[in-house]
Amino acid sequence: MSLLARHARLPLALAAVIAVVCVLTLIAPPAGRTSWFLEVSPGLLYAGVLAALYRRLPLSHFVYVGIFLHILILVYGGVYTYAETPLGNWAKDTFDLSRNPYDRVGHLALGIFPAFTIREILLRETPLQRGGWLFFLTLCVVLAMAAFWELLEWWVALLADPSVGTAFLGMQGDVWDTQWDMFLALVGAAVALPLLSGVHDRSMARVPWRAVAVLVALLVAAPRVSHADPIDADRPGLATPATVIEPGTAQIETGAGFERESGHEHTWTVGEPLLRIGVIDRAELRLDTVGFVHIDSDEEGSENAGGDLEVSTKIELVEQSSWRPETSLLAGLSFPTGGRAVTSDGYDPFGSLLASWQIGDRFDVDANLGFADRTQGPDDSSRVFETFVAVAGDVSFAKRWGSFLEYFATLRGSGAPDEHAVDGGFTYLATDDVQLDVSAGAGLSDAAPDYFVDVGVAWRFWTP
């Protein structure tokens, strides 16, 4: 086993524990799944970025243990909300405090644990040496992160359901809560850095830098085969191509949309993120959600909510040969992390058989046949089996422009209405790693939206 592989065993074990903790706490969190997702997802994103960078920038075990502890603090706060954690309420009653102090602990942690990640990256990737400037610049980045966190809380409070937004802010009646949060993050970093830098340095000394340097040199010297081909995105449209991204590649596809339904309901979606990670040859991991949703309805008024999280994999079964299409299998599970207005409130399996034909250099055809077993929502725990059909034709013209036309339908059992719609649009390849798109469509049945529009971008941000 290589030095780098041995070094990876601890962070992999910690990641496995975190995954189990996240799944268990998502089953029925007292504060709701939307609150859990808002509180925990920044920490998971932070860990995911460092995991994606591991081959080129492995960090010390000291830092990975700190990230592990920080995510546990975030999960505990997400399960109950910071203002209602049992441990914080115990401290409030025992020491006769005016408020639950757990959110103060959370913001101290926001200063303590990221400070050492920042310190290590500055030592590794910049000319900075140990001393006053390193300490000062680390504090500056920590304070900037704390300020951005407060901005994030403000934005979520504006966009999310009012009760969720208020719980996420966690002010507990303190008009100076924002200033206290930033100050505590600064104090946490300022106290922890002098006390623990020696321990951090000893842990850094055990990172296999030499193995990393050899690996990076090989990566730099190797031809970037993946860059020879432009990005292959799943968006726009609902028909999913059978193509699987290469191992070690990561890309995110995101956008925003609007739809009008029967003249009395309008829905805006922001985000629509799909993260695709090439895991092994012919297989990719996918994390998907509709993002934040704002609904205006004559009957229900305005509602804001986050969407459910879908975790899936796409596996290529056969490559194209003559008229036999490239064929892949997509299978996954939807987790009820969304707000009440949009969540199914159940753990829902789904899957699709995907087929793609490339006809010459300019034409492609994608066809999907899928299913989903959907829970109907918080007020109805019954399930409806859905069948999904989509067919899309794509054509490339000029050098970087493309267009598509698509038909799709959702066929439901149990007497639920079916949906039929068509859409089309254009794509523009800004670079080999960035694709822009715009599309619009219209419903062909009463249950489908009257019309909808969407804009988006796909970005391949990591290649082997």
Written account of the structure:
The chain is an alpha+beta fold. The chain folds into two domains: about 5-215, no CATH class; about 230-460, Porin. Helix content is about 40%, strand content about 35%. The protein contains nine helices and 14 strands. It has helices at about 5-25, 35-50, 60-80, 85-95, 100-125, 130-160, 160-170, 175-205, 210-220, and strands spanning about 250-260, 265-280, 285-290, 290-295, 300-305, 310-320, 325-335, 350-360, 365-375, 380-395, 400-410, 420-430, 435-445, 450-460. The chain has a twelve-stranded antiparallel beta barrel with strand order 1-2-3-6-7-8-9-10-11-12-13-14. A hairpin with a 7-residue loop joins strand 6 (about 310-320) and strand 7. The longest helix is centred in the first third of the chain and has 28 residues, at about 130-160. The chain is globular. Residues about 220-225 have low confidence and may be disordered.
Please write out the topology:
Layout: H1 3-26, H2 33-52, H3 61-80, H4 86-94, H5 102-125, H6 132-159, H7 162-169, H8 177-204, H9 209-221, E1 250-261, E2 265-280, E3 283-288, E4 291-297, E5 301-306, E6 309-318, E7 326-335, E8 348-359, E9 363-377, E10 380-397, E11 401-412, E12 419-431, E13 434-443, E14 451-462
Antiparallel strand pairs: 1-2, 1-14, 2-3, 2-4, 3-6, 4-5, 6-7, 7-8, 8-9, 9-10, 10-11, 11-12, 12-13, 13-14
